[in-house]
Each structure stands twice: as C-alpha cells, then as structure tokens.
Amino acid sequence: MSKNRCGWCVGDPLYEAYHDEEWGVPVYDDARLFEFLILETFQAGLSWITVLKKRENFRKAFDNFDYKKIVNYDASKVEDLLQDAGIIRNKLKVNATISNAQAFMKIQEEFGSFSKYIWNFVDGTPIKNKVKIYKEAPANTPLSDTISKDLKKRGFKFVGSTVIYAQMQATGMVNDHEVSCFRYHEV
Asked: Would you list which residues are annotated within the binding site for Zn(2+)?
C-alpha cells in the first residue's frame, strides 16, 4: 500500500526518503541545524534535489559540517573546495559558509546554543500550517523576514527570507506537509 506524500517529492526515491524521514521533523541539535543552514544557503537559486544529491559530497568536503573546523578554513582550503566537482562550486557561498560558522558560534556564545536562539522565534513550538497542495505553501513569511534580517545583522550571508523559510520547513519550525500527507500528523 502506497503512502500519500506531499506532491513535491513523489517519484524520486531520494526525495521521498528525505521527505519521509527528515523534512519537517523538529531539529534542536546545533550541529544538524548548522548542516541544514549550510545546505539551504548552497541551495539558494537552485533546486533542493540538486543539493540533496550532493549532500554526502558536501558532508565530506566540509568536515561533516563541523562549524568548529570550518571557522578555521584558510584560502588553501577554499581553493580545494572550489576544485571539488562533488559540491556546488560557488566562491561566494563557500566563503559565506566560513563567515556563517563564525556568526553561528557567536550566537552560541550569546544564547547558549543556536537552537535556543532560532527556536525562540516560534516560542519553541512548531507552527502547524494547513497546506492542501504544496504549491500553496508560501516561499517566505513575515516571520522568515524577521529571522533573515536578524541573521544578516549578526553577520550571516545568503540567508534571505526564502532561504530561511526553507530552513524553517526543513528543520520543523514550521509544518508545511500537505494535510493529506501521512507525515502531517506525525511531525
């Protein structure tokens, strides 16, 4: 018996597995939040499936998304990354990853964790929308505008409102599963 899934993932086994196991599940772990933030910044202007197919390559290239290592990347490491055909080779995004690691750690110092900082925007509770068809879900909201502005003020790059809303969806801050999707009531 097949499961009723959100329309955006149907037909691609990698997309379906991501949808079924990760998308929309609340993430409170700083390391995982950083991973999603980096992947979403690389996704800016591209499709998510493009990034998802390269995820393991990103994980390897960026030291398992260890922000404590990434913060110390030098010009030589940046050049190595720009030569890595397994990732999206965009110099601005690679450099943004390093500066975002620095800004991420500053937030940790100020708030105790990035998780406390980011989840405070939704009072620690996921927003549960009632999306009937995935194409009706917004690309951004006033809340993602607010978070984006605050992150930019704190030195983050490639964190526009649309990127941040995608981050909110991916990490379960907002539940935009279609109401008919089997995951809607599970997350």
From this structure: 6, 19, 177, 181
Number of domains in the chain: 1
- The answer to whether position 182 is within a domain reads no
Model confidence at 186, in pLDDT bands (50, 70, 90)? very high
**Catalytic machinery residues:** 18, 40, 48
**Predicted local distance difference test score (pLDDT) of residue 2:** 77
Tell me the mean pLDDT in the region 100-129: 98
CATH of the domain at 68: 1.10.340.30
Rounded to a whole number of angstroms, the distance between the first and last alpha carbons of the chain is 21
Assess contact for 81 and 61: CB atoms under 8 A: yes
- Whether 58 is in a domain gets the answer yes
